[in-house]
């Protein structure tokens, strides 16, 4: 495990504890000191590196991730939003460039890690960090996997088998991007809307007017995804019904906003806007919501304009501006 600060101290002292909604302990896992470090280099090369970070965090530490890799190491991007390797392995080229500045400024990860290492992963469980080393799990156990080129490689099959043996659901998809957009349907809309309103998921979905706004935002996301070549296998109403099942849950972006942490706004929203511009798809509602949350983030210092990841961001309108 690569962990820093209070999280590392807590894991070394008490391990990682997962509790349910009521606070009842589900499981506690402990680790010997030599397997927990703030310095990736001391852990040596690995078969798989599971990157469970926000996009801006992963971008900042990609040199450390590279230190964990040899020629055969797979990098498993267990992250929300459009992944930085999105253009790699596409059967049909629809984008004019490979590097997406909203998630990989200057192509740093593309250059240092290489997209060929990556296995796409969709994280469906809902959870909250209660205290360092303690996680409250509220919903789900599925981790959808897929190679960027859709192949059923030995490495993705082996990873799926390990996850299934540990009690998770780990289906392998032949088009992981379809599942990326299915998750992004919610992330690109629920997350920024929750920061704009301060509402939990059930509060937003339970309000008729707000549910309609979310549905219209999801229509725009779907238009961008379809222009990028994705297929949406369910309807917006079905996706909203799936979110209903999560119940009273604060989105990860709202949790970060309330904790004064940096917002994962670019991977979840700006990336969709960047793709919209490249593909010529208008997204007026998303442009508006993004601008509102960007200002709120800047005022709260959760989206600082001088941050090396965020400072490259622009807010073009997909209806006409160019990146």
Please characterize this protein's 3D structure.
Helix 6 crosses helix 10, helix 8 packs across helix 11 and helix 11 packs antiparallel against helix 12 (284-299). The chain is of the alpha/beta class and 323 residues long. Helix content is 41%, strand content 12%. It is built from twelve helices and eight strands. The strands form two sheets. The protein has a four-stranded mixed β-sheet. The two termini are 38 Å apart. The chain has helices at residues 5-14, 55-60, 62-67, 108-112, 154-165, 176-197, 201-205, 208-227, 236-244, 252-259, 265-279, 284-299; strands spanning 16-19, 25-29, 48-51, 74-78, 118-123, 126-131, 134-139, 143-146. The longest helix has 22 residues, at 176-197. Helix 4 (108-112) links the parallel strand 4 (74-78) and strand 5. Mean pLDDT is 93; it is low at 318-323.
């Amino acid at each position: 495990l690569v962990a820093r600060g209070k999280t590392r101290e807590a894991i070394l002292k008490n391990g990682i504890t997962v509790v349910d909604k009521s606070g009842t302990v589900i499981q506690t896992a402990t680790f010997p000191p030599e397997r927990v470090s703030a310095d990736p280099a001391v852990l040596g090369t690995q078969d798989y590196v599971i990157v469970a970070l926000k996009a801006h965090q992963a971008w900042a530490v990609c040199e450390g991730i590279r230190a964990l890799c040899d020629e055969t190491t797979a990098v498993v991007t267990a992250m929300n939003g459009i992944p930085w390797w999105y253009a790699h392995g596409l059967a049909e080229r629809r984008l004019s460039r490979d590097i997406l500045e909203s998630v990989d400024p200057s192509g740093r990860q593309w250059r240092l890690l290489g997209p060929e290492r990556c296995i796409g992963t969709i994280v469906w469980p809902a959870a909250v960090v209660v205290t360092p080393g303690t996680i409250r799990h509220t919903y789900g156990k599925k981790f959808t996997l897929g190679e960027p080129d859709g192949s059923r490689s030995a490495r993705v099959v082996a990873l799926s088998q390990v996850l299934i043996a540990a009690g998770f659901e780990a289906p392998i998809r032949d088009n992981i991007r379809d599942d990326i957009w299915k998750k992004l349907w919610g992330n690109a809309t629920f997350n920024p809307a929750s920061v704009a309103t301060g509402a939990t998921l059930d509060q937003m979905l339970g309000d008729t007017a707000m549910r309609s706004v979310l549905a219209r935002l999801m229509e725009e996301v779907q238009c961008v995804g379809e222009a990028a070549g994705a297929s949406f296998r369910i309807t917006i109403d079905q996706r909203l019904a799936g979110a209903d099942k999560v119940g009273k849950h604060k989105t990860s972006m709202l949790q970060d906003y309330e904790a004064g942490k940096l917002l994962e706004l670019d991977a979840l929203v700006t990336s969709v806007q960047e793709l919209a511009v490249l593909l010529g798809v208008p997204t007026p509602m998303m442009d508006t919501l993004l601008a509102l949350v960007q200002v709120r983030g800047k005022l709260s210092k959760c989206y600082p304009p001088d941050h090396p990841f965020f400072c490259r961001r622009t807010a073009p309108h997909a209806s006409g501006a160019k990146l």
